[in-house]
Amino acid sequence: MDSRDIRRHWTNWATTYGSALRATTKTWTAKALEIDALSRRLRSVVGDSGGGKILEMGCGNGINCVELAKFFPNLSFDGVDFVPEMVTAAIENARSADVEDRVRFFVGDAIGAGNLPELQPSYDVVFTDRCLINLDAIELQKQAISILASKVKPGGYLLMIENSLTSYAKQNRCREALGLAARKPADFNLFFDEDEILLHVTAAGLELVDVEDFSSLHDLMLYVLVPAINGGAVDYDHPLVQAATTLSRELAAEATGTFGSYGQNRLFVCRRLT
Ligand SMILES: C[S@@+](CC[C@H](N)C(=O)[O-])C[C@H]1O[C@@H](n2cnc3c(N)ncnc32)[C@H](O)[C@@H]1O
C-alpha cells in the first residue's frame, strides 16, 4: 500500500465506525492496556499538577486523549490526525465526555506537525499510539520523530507506542513452537526496525530512557495460546484474553516487564535533552 491507500484505509474506518473504538482498534482489551501504560507513564513524568500540556499525533477518534483527560483533570490535550472524519469523531467524543474545555483536536499530518498554527510551540509530553507504523518508509518515520521531538520542551518526553519487528518476531517464534504459522503485519503497517529507529532517537536529540512491554501476556494469550487450542483462530472476546488484560494491569501497577517482550506494541520512552 502507498501513502494514499493508507489514508484511504483510515478514512474508510473513520466513516464506517465513527466515534466507536473499532475505528482505530480491533479489541477493547488492547486499548485498555495502551491507556493504562500511557496513564502510568504520564503520572510518573508530569504528574497531574500545574497545567501540563500533552500532544497526541495520530489521535484517531480521540479515545486516548479523552480517557486520559478524565484521569488527569489538570492536564490539557491536543490531538492531531490526518483524516478529517477521525477529527470530527474525536470532537464528538470529547463533547460526550464533557472534557472539550481541555481537549482540542485538529487535522494535520505527522510530517507537517512543525507548521500547524493551532498547536502550542512545545509540549511537556508528545505521544503516538500506532501512528508512526503508518508511514511507509523508515526515512519518513525518522523524519516524523525529529519533527515530534522538536515539539517537546527540553526535559520533556516523547512517548511512542508502536509495533516492533523485534518483539513481533519473538511472538511469532512462540506461535511456531506450538505449530502455528507466523503472522504477518497488515499491508498498511511498517513496524519499527529498532536498530534504525533507536539510532535515530539519539540523533533527534532524545535519550531513550525505557522500553516498556505492557502487552506481552495479553498478546501471548490472544495470538499464541488461545489459537493453539482453538484451531488457530484469534478470538478477541476469549475470557482468557480478558483475564490476561486484568492481570497485566494489576501487576503493572507494581512492576513493569513481568512477562518479557512478546507483545507486538512496545512503549518507547524518550526524554528530550536540551
Ligand atoms: C491505529 S490508529 C490509532 C489511533 C489512536 N492513536 C489510538 O490509539 O486510538 C492510527 C491513526 O493514525 C492516523 N495517521 C496515520 N498516518 C498519519 C499521519 N501521517 N499523520 C497523522 N495521522 C496519521 C490514522 O488516521 C489513524 O487515525
Automatic annotation (TrEMBL):
One of its GO terms (molecular function) is methyltransferase activity. It comes from the Bacteria. The keyword Methyltransferase applies. Coiled coil: none annotated. One of its GO terms (biological process) is methylation. Gene3D superfamilies: Vaccinia Virus protein VP39. The keyword Methyltransferase applies. Keywords: Methyltransferase, Transferase. Residues 50-164 form the Methyltransferase domain. This is Methyltransferase domain-containing protein. It comes from Hyphomicrobium album. It holds the Pfam family Methyltransf_31.
